[in-house]
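If your schedule permits, I should be very grateful for your opinion on a structural question. Thank you for your consideration; the sequence and its tokens are set out here:

===
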Amino acid sequence: MASLDRYGSDAVRLIYDIANAHFIAEDFADGLRRCRKRLELVHLSDTGRDVFRHDPVGMGTVPFAERPRALAAVGYTARPMLEIISRDADRDILASAERLDAMGFAESAAS
């Protein structure tokens, strides 16, 4: 954030990747608070902490159910973007969207 602030243009925006944050054990709510003034988009995918991946939701250890509240707390109301790498992307993206919907992501993006 300090580098972006020194750059001097508020037009430079950020994409916050939940899988990246989880992999490096960053506190998600704290990370969002730090970047909220430049936050443009949130990427969602699942991963563990041993090997970095962009797996379908439910295939790793990202605690997705906790995320809608943290997104709302920083005023993020846009729909997050799924960033799934899969051999059957259509199936896995749809299944991930259904899992996220069941955890409250649709309600948080609609408000």
